[in-house]
Write a structure and sequence with these properties.
DNA-binding; about 200 residues; homotetramer; Tetracycline Repressor, domain 2; 10 helices
Chain lengths: ~200, ~200, ~200, ~200
DNA sequence: TATGAATGAGCATTCATTCAT
DNA sequence: TATGAATGAATGCTCATTCAT
């Protein structure tokens, strides 16, 4: 009965895909189960065969979204061992990644954040553990900076604070891209960001 | 001959205050009028004596929030004419301002952003004009950078892109403060941010 | 303290006047106390100094409305003793009376009827006793027809049925006047009505 | 694979039926969705599966009501080509039709009229176009009278005015039937009406 | 397994009435 | 006496979830 299991996974993925699109367009709270069902081309009841609740769909989407993002980052970082190149790759991947999706789609990040910040649901918070996510991301970036310092290419700075600042800058630029996708040449903003930052910490 | 005399402005402010707290804790969509009423210590109907709708409360809160923030920024910038000092002041004021509020309170910013990004309501969008807000803020910061370049203290960079990057960094750091207020010595992160940035653009 | 009493009656009348106008424009159910208060130029609470409830205002207006109408009818009938002339006067007074008011104003009659037909409130039904009103009106008209028959100017018909038919015709024409005040030369319709009817029963 | 199969038209009709009963008993404004739901033996939400709003239920009921009435009239008139017989049929059908329904049921006509007279809602007014309804009905009756005049059986009267008067008489008698269904032998009142009228216009 | 009909808890909003001044 | 600020019961409507088929 292995094929059956594949089918289920396949259908689950289809529903998640539909959900992500609907979430992206309407925001999570305003997204209705019926919308997701219609977009997925299934009946309303069918969704409940694959997910316990709307919240579970959200959680699954979030996890997937995150996993994909992390993979991209990891891929980019594994290309080189040079700290400067790694930081450049980090910015490039983020900006390129954000630009890849259409503007509507990006709005979903806001909801992930918002939900993660305020959810009262314990299960939810375990899934959307923003604290942990950022802690790990900070450690990753701080490690790169630390490495740069050890190799003498970066000044001896407080790696954690600088990591936090750089990550913040990344998120903040993405926020502006969400708000006004056409306005600026975002690739250049990304370049400005990394140039300023690298100039700032290079020896 | 004389009805109960009430300071309507005062009461309006009290309700807005209650609303901000409730919005901050639950998010705007999940905040119920009855919650706001209870928090304000008034009846459900009373709110409608002061605001036409839930949306109007939100808009009023947003405007107030923004106005206060802008005042702080303007105050800080007017203290000096030196570009470097102004950029430092900008970061300091933002970080200090964010730390001043309690953590719950800051969460409301997320909803302001989220609402601004996705609201379909024309009236709402006129009020929460994020595009315009950021455009103006970018112009302000770009002006300072430009001034620095002209005075020879900053390198000749693309002022707009750098402004965008700096603002993004500010927002991003604030986001992390929201998510994990205790974690880091945020003042130091602010310092790291401005040090890296200034190092990066100073001649 | 007699003047005080006069003042109270005066104010009560003013409020009723305002109420009738508001009822006429919006219908009774959709008329708000605040509208009546504003139209009367008094405070919302003041109304309750003169009327126990919205229902009581309605009842008072209805009674007044009816009393005035009855007076007009009685006035007209007392001008002559001739049955044919009296029936003509009846139609004329009704049509002229209806035309006197503006169209909006007439709509109130519908609500009086509707309320009278369906009110579940015992007190209300005692006041808006449509059954009794029509019974009396039928008796009045039947009396005139009877008188005509006895004097040999009308055929020997079932006076009650003919009275009912005539009254119905009157109401029905007024209904059309309400619906479409401009459409027809309503005076001529009144003439047609009475001509047909009198031709029909005259010997 | 197959959901519960329901005859949606059937269910829609059942809800309309319940709605008509509730409207008839309480009047439209005082009828609550929950009352209709309970009378129909369904949940509150179920109604909204079949009607978009309370207003839509009302409109559907009104249209149905009217269509049925018109059919009756048309049926009766098609039985004969004789003007006098047609006018007699008109009155008979109306009175018989009105008597067929129970008294509560008829009260709904008042609300249809009242709503038609005062509704501010454009969509509603398109549905309850009383002006047009009466205009058409007047044209129909005037045509019969005209035909009678041409054939020399009726006097040369202003057909439109006489039609309006006859229709008014019909409505007015029905109103009295609503108010006091037991009181009079309404068939005889109908006879009186048509006798008087026909006597009045016959040559 | 798949479906959509059915449901009712939940919510924003309205408004007659009360009552402190 | 006059007022309007305050109130909460009541209502139309939404939507996540259930369940019979």
């Amino acid at each position: 009965m292995a094929p059956k299991i594949v089918d289920r996974e396949q259908k689950r993925a289809e529903i998640m895909n539909a959900a992500i699109q609907v979430f992206a367009q309407n925001g999570i709270v305003k997204s209705k189960m019926i919308d997701i069902a219609r977009k997925a081309g299934v009946g309303k009841g069918t969704i409940y065969e694959y997910f316990r609740s709307k919240e579970e769909i959200f959680a699954a989407c979030y996890s997937q979204f995150n996993r994909q993002w992390e993979e991209k980052i990891q891929d980019a970082l594994s290309q080189t061992d040079d700290p400067e190149a790694q930081l450049r790759a980090l910015i490039t991947v983020s900006v390129e990644g954000a630009m890849q999706y259409n503007e509507d789609f990006l709005g979903i990040m806001m909801d992930f954040w918002a939900e993660g910040i305020r959810s009262k649901n314990e299960d939810m918070l375990r899934i959307i553990d923003l604290k942990n996510l950022y802690t790990e991301f900070r450690a990753l970036v701080a490690g790169i900076i630390q490495k740069g310092t050890e190799r003498g290419v970066f000044r001896a700075v407080d790696a954690k604070s600088y990591a936090s600042a750089l990550i913040g800058a990344l998120d903040g630029v993405m926020l502006q891209m969400i708000i006004d996708p056409q306005l600026l040449k975002w690739r250049e903003v990304g370049q400005a960001l990394i140039d300023a930052f690298l100039n700032g910490i290079k020896t």
